[in-house]
Amino acid sequence: MKDTASDVDSRFEKPAYDSVSKIISTDLGWLHIRGPVSAGTLSDYHFSEGLSCFRPPKRQQQALIEHSKEPDGIVFTAALANNIITYVSFQKPDFPWWIKRCFPRLLELGSVETDLSWRKMGLSKTLFDTIFKDPDFKYFEDFITIAVHTIYSWDLKNTCLSPWDYRKYMLKLFGQYGFVPWETEDPEIREHPCNILLARIGTNLEQKDVRHFANCCLGVN
Ligand SMILES: CC(C)(COP(=O)(O)OP(=O)(O)OC[C@H]1O[C@@H](n2cnc3c(N)ncnc32)[C@H](O)[C@@H]1OP(=O)(O)O)[C@@H](O)C(=O)NCCC(=O)NCCS
Questions:
Q1: How far is residue 105's CA from residue 199's CA, in Å, rounded to a whole number?
Q2: What is the spatial distance between Cα 170 and Cα 41, in angstroms, rounded to a whole number?
Q3: Whose CA is nearest to atom 38 of ligand 1?
Q4: Maximum distance among all alpha carbons in the chain?
Q5: Which CATH code for domain 5-218?
Q6: What is d(CA 51, CA 146) in angstroms, rounded to the nearest whole number?
Q7: Which of 113, 143, 163, 207 is the right S-S partner for 194, CB 3.0 to 4.6 Å?
Q8: What is the pLDDT of residues 111-138, one digit of tens each?
């Protein structure tokens, strides 16, 4: 999560804090899905110890706090009582290929993580359902949201999945929310055959935006 503030399009607007706030009854208890969360809200929560895939939990919480202060930093959380167990973050693109080709309708899903001891319980799906499928929250329909998947961002160690199986897992999980693979010349993606660029085209996009995006993928723009 780098400081992209100076690159942010001046017309870019994050959704208002807590535009999503839902308390959902689950087998695990009452799950509070909310976001974008403010830095203050993120600091008030306890950040679960098993959220350690990208950084040690305390540092990851701090990184998300800083991220949520950025003009383009968006964080959604799922919490049981005062304990965050899943989160997902978004921003204007952060990868070199996409920083160069950024355009107003482009967003990037930065990271999604569920606490190691709470995985495979439907938490990320509950969070994604609320962000991408709730008819009351249409923010992402105005954007092309990319997710740059490289083997380095995957938890191969704890899942014991091969890179090919992790790839399949990501295609299936993200596919349920409209993310599909795009061919790209991005060297970071082309570095490993399992890496994939996924993109979700919001329903409010015009054909010219999609064409522009396709050209960016191929490096024509
Ligand atoms: C990816 C991740 C966020 C998924 O979170 P989760 O809360 O465990 O996911 P869910 O329980 O909602 O499961 C979603 C689906 O994936 C499947 N799934 C979960 N873990 C799986 C695994 N290890 N292997 C295969 N499928 C798996 C579930 O069965 C479910 O399938 P369904 O749609 O058929 O019901 C979590 O595995 C994680 O934190 N991984 C490490 C970080 C990461 O890889 N992030 C993605 C790249 S940024």
A1: 12
A2: 29
A3: 113
A4: 50
A5: 3.40.630.30
A6: 23
A7: 163
A8: 999 999 999 999 999 999 999 999 999 9
For ligand 1, atom 19, the nearest C-alpha belongs to 120
Pocket of ligand 1 (CB under 6 A): 53, 86, 111-114, 119-125, 153-155, 159, 161, 169, 173
Tokens of 124: 């990320």
Q: Which ligand 1 atom minimizes the distance to the CA of 54? A: 42
CA of 170 to the centre of ligand 1 (A): 8
Q: Whose CA is nearest to atom 12 of ligand 1?
A: 122
Distance between CA atoms of residues 163 and 173, nearest Å: 15
pLDDT in tens, 46-72: 999 999 999 999 999 999 999 999 999
Q: Taking the domains of the chain in order of start, what are their residue ranges?
A: 5-218
